[in-house]
Vacuolar protein sorting 55
Amino acid sequence: MAAGLRTIVILSFFLAIGFMLCILSSALYHNFLPLLVVATYVLAPLPNWLCSKAENRDDFMDSGASGIVELGKFMTGAFVAMGIALPVVLAHCDQIRVEAMAMSIVGGLLIYSTIISFTMFFTQEEEF
């Protein structure tokens, strides 16, 4: 029980640092475009979650991957890539500063890695 609580506290700390970096990347430079990264990283796990719920797990002999699960993984990867590429494109077009870009990317990666870690630590496998 103590290990689970410690994991929650540590992951919450990293999530708070990620959100703080994303908010500071916007607030310090008076430009709120880097906050779009937060939206992409919050939306990134949704296709994976929705497509895993739509997967048919009743087949006894099914050993291959389902197409809907692969679609969810692809869409999640596209959201993560967009979360990294969006600040780079905005910095290249001089819409945001390079410092804001770096803070936004690091904060976004912390947010997404924390969300993935939460799901890895607290997902229970179903046994037959």
User: Anything to note?
Assistant: The two ends are 25 Å apart (CA to CA). The helical segments are 2-27, 36-43, 45-54, 67-92, 98-121. Residues 2-27 form the longest helix (26 residues). DSSP finds five helices and no strands in the chain.
